[in-house]
Amino acid sequence: MNGNTLQTPIVYLKGVGPHRAEILQSELGIQTFQDLLNLFPSRYIDKTHYYKISELQRSNADVQLIGKIVHLKTVAQKRGQRLVAKFIDDSGEMELVWFRGHKWIREHIKVNEPYVIFGRCNWFNGTFSMPHPEMELLKEHEKGLKISMQPVYPSTEKLNNKGITNRVINKWIQQLFLDTKGSFSETLSNDMIHKLKLVSKNEALFNIHFPKNQEALAKAQFRLKFEELFYVQLQLISKKISRRQKIKGHNFNHVGERFNNFYKNHLPFELTEAQKRVIKEIRWDLGSNAQMNRLLQGDVGSGKTIVAVMTMLLAIDNGYQACLMAPTEILANQHYQGISALLEHTGVTCSLLTGSIKKSARKPIHEQLENGELDILVGTHALLEDKVKYQNLGLAIIDEQHRFGVAQRAKLWHKNNIPPHILVMTATPIPRTLAMSLYGDLDISVIDELPPGRKRVRTVHRFDSNRLKVFRFLKEEIKKGRQVYIVYPLIQESEAMDYKDLMDGYESVVREFPMPDYQVSIVHGKMKPSDKDYEMERFVSGETQLMVATTVIEVGVNVPNASVMVIESAERFGLSQLHQLRGRVGRGADQSYCILMTGQKLSSDAKTRLETMVSTSDGFEIAEVDLKLRGPGDLMGTQQSGILNLRIADIVKDNDILKAARFHAMELLREDPNLESPENLVIRHTYTQLMKHKAQWNYIS
Ligand code: ADP
Ligand code: MG
Question: Which of these, 512, 514, 521, lies nearest to 469 by C-alpha position?
Answer without folding.
Answer: 512
